[in-house]
Every structure is written in C-alpha cells, then in structure tokens.
Design a protein that fits this description.
about 130 residues, alpha/beta, Rossmann fold, six-stranded parallel sheet, 6 strands, about 35% helix
Length: about 130
C-alpha cells in the first residue's frame, strides 16, 4: 500500500493540488492522511478516501502526522513545505518521495525530492510507477 502524509499548513495549493489529482488516479491501494489548519485543508480538493485531521497550533499538524505514521517497507510519500520530516524519511525502511518546494538539505539515502511547481508531476508519476503504483 502507498502511504501518503500531507502537512497542509506548509504547502501552497499550486504545489499540492496537482499531486492530489495524480494520486486520485491511482487504482492500487493508497492511504492519505493530511493534517493542518482548517483553512489550509479547505484550500484544495481531497480524494474521497483522504483522512483529514484539523490541527491548530505550532507543530500540531506535524505531531498528528507523526502519530499516524506506521513504519513498513511500503513506499511513502511525504508532502510538506519544510524539512520537518527529514528524520522520518531517513529512517523509513522503504522508498521515500518528498514533495516539497523547500525540502531539507538533510535528505539523503535515496530519498527522491520533487517540487511539482517547478518540475511538474511527471517525476512523481514515474516514481509511483517504479514502485508499483
């Protein structure tokens, strides 16, 4: 199963919506969990199966997403506008894609980073295909 964690507070809709639209076309199992302020969650169209967690306060969205993370060898997509999940990405036992406009410089160990606002969604689609989705 493809696991997707979205920090809606730290990513502009122009970066997030194209990725959500792409994920909505995947026929294999996808689990999407998004957290952020209600205004941030309301700025985009979410796939019907997305779990949305309204969070208020500094780092509350990050804490909600970290609590919902389950380590597995399955592919993981982290959609975030900052580097808060660099450690999680490094320790995840499976392949990791980070969708971000300002990813942490600490990301390494084969983590793929894509900014859909500048790179488009083609690299994301190629990554998903390469990992069975």
């Amino acid at each position: 199963m493809l696991r997707v964690l979205v920090d809606a507070d730290n990513l502009a809709p122009r970066r997030l919506q194209p990725v959500l639209d792409l994920l909505a076309t995947i026929t294999s199992p996808v689990s999407i969990t998004a957290s952020g302020g209600q205004n941030a969650l309301d700025r985009v169209r979410w796939p019907d199966n997305a779990e949305l967690i309204a969070s208020a306060g500094w780092q509350r969205a990050d804490a909600s997403l970290a609590a919902s993370y389950i380590p597995s060898p399955d592919p993981l997509v982290l959609i975030t506008g900052d580097g808060d999940f660099a450690l999680l990405a490094e320790r995840h036992p499976g392949p990791v894609l980070v969708v971000s406009g300002a990813a942490s410089g600490r990301l390494r160990n084969g983590t793929t980073v894509v900014d859909p606002a500048t790179d488009g969604v083609e690299p994301i689609s190629a990554w998903l295909t390469a990992h069975g989705h």
